Sequence to fold (55 residues):
Amino acid sequence: MGWDAALLRESLYKALSGERSPSFDTILKVISALGLKLKAKMPQSPVSRTRAYWK
Fold:
């Protein structure tokens, strides 16, 4: 997986160890190496998101 993600094994371990926050680019490379896709979806109702914020 490290080779597919264009990261060295040690860099991949450090990025995903929980000691630091991996960059979004790193996350996308790992997702791609696993053969997965990331999909963003708008909430069904913007009003419900606003209400949840104020609770």
